[in-house]
Input
Amino acid sequence: MKTTINRVSEFVNKEVTIGVWLANKRSSGKIAFLQLRDGTGFIQGVVVKADVTEETFAAAKSITQESALYVTGTVVEDSRSPFGYEMQVSEIEIIHESKDYPITPKEHGTEFLMDHRHLWLRSKKQHAIMKIRNQIIQATYHFFEKEDFVKIDPPILTGSAAEGTTELFHTKYFDEEAYLSQSGQLYMEAAAMALGKVFSFGPTFRAEKSKTRRHLIEFWMIEPEMAFTTHEESLEIQEKYVQFIVESVLGNCQLELNTLGRSVEKLEQIKAPFPRITYDHAIELLKEKGFSDVEWGEDFGAPHETAIAESFDKPVFITHYPKEIKAFYMKPDPDRDDVVQCADLIAPEGYGEIIGGSARIDDMALMEQRYKEHNLSGEAYKWYLELRQYGSVPHAGFGLGLERTVAWICGVDHVRETIPFPRLLNRLYP
Output
């Protein structure tokens, strides 16, 4: 019977054949332990010299790292294994022998591993991160379907910027100017006026010359937009969504979390509602924590966000930022014109902002004023202004950065490990 590693529990005490690669091995004189992987998981194959042919045992002793094999044997339960099962191997068929595999069990530098990212993905830790990323993606679709959102795909090539042109990749679109999208949000607002509650899930690009552990040049965003929705109602959806994806990972990825050494106790604390503090309060909190030079009107950097997060064991919303440091489309607070109805959700444990969101301006005259203040091209943004002209309603939305969220849930230090092939300031290969 041919099967895969993730399904061996269905074949306990039965003989199966699995197509695998050899991740690692060790052996003594009469027994060989093969660490096998097939993409669905990892399992140990035990080859006992007395139980197999000479040719099979010789193959077990000689096969090299990352060689491709068909392995046949009996599945047995094993309480010592993190996976819970192992395979008593009876036969090995070599499909392809790998020679001089560059990533050996010894330590390698980060740049070396990034140069070999196409191979590094095969390692147990990277496999676990990708499985958790996949679970978050699955949970995202499940959550928004359950909440009656419609998936909409905004364009990647755009003629306008969501938040200004300084961090955009410019390109020629035949005889017009175009940019790689930094956000699908403006288009999602149009979709929300047609379909009520919508979300997008796609790649975005920021030409930001940053080398921090939180930044990628190309990353994936989940961007919901909701008609007839207030800022407070949007916050409730955000915390409900984050709780849902954390619970989904806890329920389906225990083996992967164990592989990464991730503290599940901290993740189990992620229950809505999340604490909320205003920007004003955040400034006071930072001054109490020794940031004496922080001034009202400044945006927060990574050290500030980390210091604020240390005061909470859950993600925390920072709300009502100054209007001058936020995007042109954010709706002013009705009681204070100098701040807007927005929030950044800061993850615990120093992982920074994972969500940014706001209520959107729905008043035509105010949006026209914002266009003038931000020198926005009337022609490029004409369609966006028309959303306020024809049946404008209160609406709100947010964007969650997938890679930062994966980094936080996995407990990994750098977002470069949370995407299959990262694009960084100094890296376009492989």
